[in-house]
Amino acid sequence: MVAEDDDVIGRLATIRLERGDTLPDIARHFSLGINDISAANPGVDIWVPGAWERILLPLNFILPDTRRKGIVINLATMRIFHFKRNGKLLSVSTYPVGVGTEDRPTPMGEMFVARKKHRPTWYVPASIAADHRKKGDPLPSKVPPGPLNPLGEYALYLSEPSYLIHGTNKPASIGLRATNGCIRLYPEDIERLFEKTPVKTPVLIVNQPYLVGRREGIVYLEAHTPFEESGTANWKKAYAKLKDIESQSGIPLDWKKVKAVVLEARGIPVPVSAARDGFVTATAQPIRVRHPDRLYGQPELPEFKTDAWYVLAASLRDKPDAQRLAAIINHQGPPIPARVLSEGDRHRVLAGPFDNEPAAEEAARRLKIDLELDAVLFET
Questions:
Q1: Parallel, antiparallel, or unpaired: how do β-strands 60-62 and 8-10 relate?
Q2: What is the pTM of this model?
Q3: What local confidence, expressed as pLDDT, does residue 279 receive?
Q4: Do residues 233 and 86 make contact, with C-beta atoms less than 8 angstroms apart?
Q5: Which of the residues are catalytic?
Q6: Dmax of the chain from CA atoms?
């Protein structure tokens, strides 16, 4: 629930990493996108972070400067907000999303949910089919429900033709500009959104990289790196809002901090009201959360076994590079299990085990198309 005059929800947190963690695994467990967690933790390796390192979980958000009704999607923050009013109380649910690329951007503006479908069939658009043919990866005219369907298990079809809010079989892409214009959610998040969203729900898509809001009288600023094609209009609007708040409230803002927040663009709401006896600083202190026994959605690596097929993806001298590549392969969609086997100064990245040669060949084909790896098959 959020108070009528509050614009900030959630709380900043920290967690200590454990051996084998990747930032995408941490992000998914806490319903964050890779954009959220990487921007909040500059300098931390996404795929091979240091074990026992403490990182920030940016679990607080400034609500978009829009009406609070139905679904609002902020492309700049790659986050969807679902609003539901109960009298004077406002319930807000929020989830990270993947959005359209620069070449195929997600459209902005007002629309609505035209229909819903559990286990949708994907009818492949001609433009996407052409792209895949160029890569040597021809697609059928339609893909039935199942692990190969990029729509996942649930889809909300928007009134804007050909655009959907849907799940994914590539969860590591959440928080990236990686779609053909649709809005993509983690499988567990789209299931929740699907259940609470009736047909005709209004949907508003905006692009607001700079967000200004208040909570308990304190002014916050949240800055994200804007899309290259966005220009400077968004910052000018946020700057004017900050000036207006300062003028009307009579409470000075810390303009040096404002400048630092914009330059760093870490995607975290930062209090920019002038300090009042340490109260402002105290409100921004993160809470510590315990590392779960298992991260939700973290890939499970099957045991190495004989009498199976494997794919040699690479043989590298640098062990962290090998670990990084294995982690990337592990997070392909659908998953491809991969591990590092070290011998002397060489570190082999092996994908598998696979039960038969055709399954190994399909994995090698995907590694070539998706990661441009010239893999080699072998049987143990």
A1: antiparallel
A2: 0.93
A3: 47
A4: no
A5: 166, 182
A6: 75
